[in-house]
Specification:
Elements (H helix, E strand, L loop, with lengths): L8 E5 L3 H14 L4 E5 L2 H11 L5 E5 L7 H11 L5 E5 L4 H10 L3 E4 L5 H34 L4 E5 L5 E4 L1 H7 L3 H4 L13 H13 L5 E8 L5 E13 L2 E10 L1 H27 L1 H16 L4 H33 L1
Parallel strand pairs: 1-2, 1-3, 3-4, 4-5
Antiparallel strand pairs: 6-7, 6-10, 8-9, 9-10
Helix pairs in contact: 1-5, 9-11, 10-11
């Protein structure tokens, strides 16, 4: 059988020479040149781990050592092992204690009487791989936590079924005014205006039926102080502690929308000014031009001439009113 060529550094904490020799044979049967270190009691194991424990891949631990045994031994080894996988090797079949040991954090629990080279090697491989996956998961969770908490924009996770907040970041706490503890007692319904709740219920119904849906839009939110803001949200499905949730990223677009509305209002006033220039302004100008033509190019009686001048004056006053109106609307745009 071909042996595993990977490097394995294994600490065996075992006081019985016969048991240690058997374990050593089993390891050498499966692994090409394993690095095996022995500690004959807890004290030696503690000293070894404090000095060189970082280089160890797995610990094989006998439960009955001269200076410590049982649950106390497991607890203290776990405390100094820095997360190295620990496999218990014992000669006493105790199902309840084996379950208890696993719950304390050991990687596996093996009976010496049933031990074979193959079963020991498989346990070592599985324990190392589980630890590797556990570290990857912890790193992934840390990256998620860092991205979540360090985001300059408000973020939260809520339960898609109960709508309760499961987690919120610091930006959300600052922006909305609620404390972290307050958020965790609330649902997302409580940051929506009452009149917007029917629309929210429709959205939630859609998301519950299609949990993988990316969802976004602009909605009204309420801060703790009662201020209404417009929030652009983007959300995706997420599993948090085995709960179906949604992670939400919020962008407050209140000022942006206010600016757009101001621009639209100014554009409306500009269109009104343009209409005045093209329609209202032209009418008195056209009348003036006609009256001037009649007054200068035709023979008129004194009465007719006076009538033309009165009408000219009326048109001039009308023109002045239009100009003042345009000037007023221009001033409104500049404000």
């Amino acid at each position: 059988m071909e042996k595993d060529n990977n490097i394995y550094r294994i600490l065996v904490i075992e006081d019985n020479p016969g048991d240690f020799a058997l374990i050593e044979d089993f390891l050498e049967d499966q692994i090409y040149l394993p690095e095996i270190f022995q500690a004959k009691n807890f004290k030696e194991g503690e000293q070894f781990l404090k000095e060189t424990g970082w280089a160890i891949n797995v610990i094989l631990l006998d439960l009955s050592l001269p200076d410590k045994s049982g649950e106390e031994l497991i607890t203290e080894i776990l405390a100094i092992s820095s997360g190295i996988p620990i496999i218990i090797l014992t000669g006493y079949p105790d199902v309840a204690f084996s379950v208890r040991s696993l719950s304390l954090g050991v990687a596996d629990y093996l009976l010496k009487d049933d031990l074979t080279a193959s079963s020991l090697f498989k346990s070592i491989l599985y324990s190392i791989e589980r630890k590797k996956k556990s570290l990857e998961l912890e790193e992934s969770q840390k990256r998620y936590s860092d991205l979540f908490q360090l985001s300059p924009q408000p973020m939260w996770v809520y339960d898609i079924n109960t709508l309760r907040f499961l987690n919120v970041n610091n930006a959300a706490i600052r922006h909305y005014g609620y404390s972290y503890e307050e958020f965790l007692t609330m649902t997302i319904r409580e940051i929506r205006p009452v009149e917007d709740l029917p629309k929210l219920d429709e959205q939630i119904s859609l998301l519950r039926n299609k949990t993988d849906v990316h969802y976004g839009g602009i909605f009204r939110h309420c801060k703790k102080n009662g201020e209404i803001i417009w929030a652009e949200i983007q959300s995706n499905a997420i599993q948090l502690d085995n709960i179906d949730g949604r992670v939400v990223l919020v962008n407050d677009v209140t000022e942006r929308l206010k600016y757009i509305l101001e621009i639209e209002d100014k554009n409306k006033k500009l269109r009104e000014i343009a209409w005045m220039q093209s329609h209202v302004f032209r009418a008195p100008v056209a009348r003036l031009m006609s009256l001037i033509d009649l007054a200068t190019n035709y023979e008129n009686t004194e009465v007719e001439q006076r009538e033309f001048l009165d009408k000219m004056l009326t048109s001039v006053k009308e023109l002045d009113t239009v100009i003042r109106c345009i000037a007023g609307k221009t001033d409104e745009i500049d404000q």
